[in-house]
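User: I'm writing a short methods note and want a consistent example. For Holliday junction branch migration complex subunit RuvA, I'll paste the sequence; you return only the structure tokens, no commentary, since I'll be parsing the reply automatically.
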Amino acid sequence: MIGRLSGTLAAVQPPQLLVDVQGVGYEVLAPMTTIFELPPLGQAVQLHTHLAVSETAQQLYGFIREGDRQLFRTLIKVNGVGPKMALAILSGLDGHALARCVAEDNIGALVKVPGVGRKTAERLVIELRDKLAPQVGDANDIPLMAASAPKVDCAGEAESALAALGYKPTEATKMVARACKEQPDADSATLIRLALKSMAPA
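Assistant:
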């Protein structure tokens, strides 16, 4: 089992990262809450990891904070929630926001996450109620990922990242379009953040 990676951040293509550990490149999937806090490319990074093994693949999931990994592991224990859905949940809702949704029975916010239907949202609320304590904090206080050169199609990158998280292409396009109107000159990380913020509970 691989529980932690310490190396150099070699590439970021949300939701996938490449971490170089002494010449070996590890492909890691990470929620946007982690990606927003990554150092610039070429800098040292340490991730708490979870190795998910299925009949068809072995995939590493990485998190900046140990608490996020524990939350991920709690989510995948919920019936009907797999690693991909857990990744999408933690991309749209950080620990504070998810705890509030559960405490307030906010089914509407949970069903906005791609792949989460009403029954799954209700199951999440029931099964997580005794496991997540409401936390005080601003879920929007998320440091932005450092922009990297050269300048690219930020809107296209943002749409691709949202699609990879499970949002329908048309929905991703609309979310990014709204974000572009709010901040026309924003980089891809900012556009993703704004798009996900628009789907998060108030």
